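Dock adenosine-5'-diphosphate; give full complex structure.
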Amino acid sequence: MAFVNLKNVTYKYPLTDKPALQNINLQIKEGEFVAIVGPNGAGKSTLCYTLAGFAPHFFKGELSGTVEVAGKISNQSTLDEWVLNVGLAFQNPFNQISGAKYTVFEEIAFGLENIGIPRDEMKKRVEDAMTLTGITDLADRSPYSLSGGQQQRVALTSILVMRPKLLVLDEPTSQMDPIGTREVFGTIRKMAEEGMTVVLVEHKVEWIAEFADRVIAMHNGQVLLEGNPSEVLTSNVLIKNGFGLSRYTSAAREAKKLGIWKKEKLPVTLDEAVEGFKK
Ligand SMILES: Nc1ncnc2c1ncn2[C@@H]1O[C@H](COP(=O)(O)OP(=O)(O)O)[C@@H](O)[C@H]1O
Ligand SMILES: [Mg+2]
């Protein structure tokens, strides 16, 4: 049985006519690392909200079909119960800051405090999570004094500290440089290897090809294509529908027209491009 199982999920925000998600069917195994790609407005964030129980519990609106995670069904659970299993890092990290805490340390401890974790255990868990995401030196800073990339790391840390079974990340590295992105992806990959299930919305497709097990391409609230990262990310279907390609794929496509790229398969990552151009 799938760990995450979406059956015929359609969701409409309040006061809108067109569903933001239409008839989504999606199964994810425990410990799988799934990346979601798609142009703006495709429904990626809405899918994240739906997995995280915010749709329908917070955004209201109309949800049909079933969203099952870890054997529970979202509209048969309360949001408080649901968030014990599923953690969501929002697209805009600023929306994640509680506004109730003066330091990053307290901010990260906030969720544990709310579920009544004893003080000593809380301190240890916060310190471990901060080490994992490399933000130990930010512990005493105000959450509001941070750069966008630092806020994204704090947001990720405040989710990881809760040890969710399903980690949902909506463009978690959008404000980070390549080094920060690589570090964060490494951390996420490690969590998946330790058994956490990960759903990641990401535009930086070369990273997806390196880290994710599977890619789901969304368009107009539907799943357009899914499968192996390197196949999906070089597919003509994506090119025709306005998806972003990796720069290596774009370069090799042009090179192929000129007869310089000889392989059938196009690259997604730098390593694949180097390998293909060498021959
Ligand atoms: N809070 C909201 N209320 C009404 N419509 C929304 C809301 N948020 C998103 N939408 C609409 O839902 C669709 C999908 O949006 P979204 O999930 O944010 O896409 P993506 O994350 O792929 O850019 C879009 O048409 C968008 O305008
Ligand atoms: Mg979005």
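Observed: The longest strand covers residues 4-12.
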